[in-house]
Amino acid sequence: xxxxTAADGVRKVLSLAVATAILAGACxxxxxxxxEPEGGTPLDLTGDHAHYLRSVEGARLEVIxxxxxxxxxxxxxxxxxxxxxxxxxxxASRTLATDEILLEIAEPERIVLLSPFAGDPRFSVxxxxxxxxxxxxxxxxxxxxxxxxxxxxxxxxxTQETLAQLEAAGVPVVVLLNHESxxxxxxxxxxxxxxxxxxxxxxxxxxxxxxxxxxxxxRAASRVAGLRIVHWSGGVVLGSRTVFDDAVRYLGAxxxxxxxxxxxxxxxxxxxxxxxxxxxxxxxxxxxxxxxxGTLDGTRAARLGNLESLDGRDMAAISHHVAGMVDxxxxxLVRASERIEAAGAGKxxxxxx
Length: 353
Hints:
Elements: H1 6-14, E1 34-35, E2 43-44, H2 50-55, E3 62-64, E4 73-77, E5 80-84, E6 91-93, H3 96-105, E7 111-113, H4 127-133, H5 141-146, E8 151-155, H6 160-168, E9 173-176, H7 182-196, H8 199-224, E10 228-233, E11 236-237, H9 243-251, E12 254-255, H10 256-259, H11 270-276, E13 280-284, H12 300-304, E14 307-310, H13 312-315, H14 322-342
Parallel strand pairs: 6-7, 6-8, 8-9, 10-12, 10-13, 13-14
Antiparallel strand pairs: 1-2, 3-4, 4-5, 10-11
Helix pairs in contact: 3-7, 7-8, 8-14
């Protein structure tokens, strides 16, 4: 059996599939499962993460105010009704997003178990804090149950078998359904705060995240508006319905994969990236060798030196730490804009040029 790599870890943390920034396979919305690129050759968009995109289609959690039908708190959504009769005192997390949110807003003594990725500095910005807490565990149902949690946070990309086993054991499980936008991340923070009775702390965290995002956009948007970009790593491109795409649009730039109708995390070839000819190409630290010598030489991005790499922790961020990703994304795009201006290319061109 081959050794586990960092990229393997990202695949597992975000959906047991492909890596980078909630990496996994997905398909575009086309009747035959393919999309026709500019060159006329169909793109293979068959992906093993399409089930995730379907599972969260229109799905949202509904939080019920205290006192409804005798419940302290109630959360509905995704076919589940979670009724809590009292504030949970033994909280476990199965996802990096809820690891990082809990470490920020929950009292440390109430956290009994975090996911394996919480303490791994390759994936988590909060790794030092998680290690100091000392309650980083594994993924097995047995280990979770051994911690005797009275509430578990999970996500729709966790295995259904594990969720079913926890629920069969009588453990309340709140499953966060949507991680595809900055707004969804803010809502998830509020849901976590609501479920543990830390509403005010959650709202303060949301306000801090949104304030930082607004400052970043005010600083950078006028410089990066209209830049045509692609994130391509491990043969996977980030399309619409991803946090990366939402961040790009928030800053006013153009994600070519989304513009071409691609959704989620489909695989495409380097040749297709060359055909699109972006102003900027991003990879990440898990696939830093993807844009190897000569691979993307035909692109405007390569000619201008606009091949940028984002830290893998940024690409895994679907908590409040996403504000850091957007900040560093903006910095990279400002640098790219400066190179374009220095080369005498003027302002970024429209996609149709």
